[in-house]
Amino acid sequence: MKEHIMKAGMVLSFLGMILQFTGCKGGEENSRQRNSQAYIKENNGSEDNAINTLQAGSKYKIVTPMMELKEAVVSILEDNYWPDALLSEEEFAERTGVSSDMYESFMAEYQHSEAGIDMMILIEAKEDCLRDVEKYMNEYRELLLNIYEKQPQNKAKVFASRIEVINNYVCYVQLGADITDLESQGEDVMVAYCQQENERAIDILEKTILEWEN
Questions:
Q1: Are 122 and 169 in contact (CB under 8 A)?
Q2: Residue 174 backbone phi and psi in degrees, to 5
Q3: Which residues of 170-207 are buried (b: 16+ CB within 10 A; e: fewer)?
Q4: Which of 38, 62, 175, 182 has CA atoms 20 to 30 A from the CA of 52?
């Protein structure tokens, strides 16, 4: 399963390289001058710039603005926010085709479990790459729908996922936590529940991002 994701991701990554030379040139530094790194590792009290995959249980700190956005979502979903590990810059590009020259900062946090697919991806896209980033995320969602076609709970979570563009942020939320007890009630019930959770996440993300502009 992971091999299929990586192979498809490599194809998307190649497409991203093509876009790099055909119009997606990057934007000016944001006036807020936010850190371009998604997170930094914590190491005995010292902090080093890092883009490494951190396993579940490892300490990491997401830097602003991503920390503020994540904390806003967690404050709403509480224990129902399950993503607990980060994709590195390279892994993110391989899976989605969204390369580092297309954004100012990003956070791709996923559930570090073979059975779990809860995920939240936040991308502060460069202005002239915004639509390309959105396109790649939609293609990534379609890929996941195909992969999890035969897994009812995972299929429901991907089907209920949301991709929302808020100013220059592309937000992908694929949440829902434990829906095991809902499976017996059918796909529609599972999808509806996950859609509700994703809507709650999108609402607070939009509120937080728009507040920055005021």
A1: yes
A2: -135, 80
A3: bbbbbbbbebeebeeeeeeebbebbbebbebbbebbee
A4: 175
Q: Shortest CA distance to 134 belongs to which of 145, 121, 147? A: 121
DSSP E strand stretches across the chain: 39-43, 46-49, 60-62, 85-86, 103-110, 119-125, 162-166, 169-174
pLDDT confidence bin for 110, thresholds 50/70/90: very high
Question: What's the structural domain count of the chain?
Answer: 1
Residue 136 reports pLDDT greater than 70: yes
Three-state DSSP state, 190: helix
- What pTM did the predictor assign? 0.75
Q: Which residue has the tokens 């929302």?
A: 164
In contact, 156 and 179? CB cutoff 8 Å? yes
How far is the C-alpha of 42 from the C-alpha of 149, rounded, in Å? Answer: 38
Domain that holds residue 96: 2-212
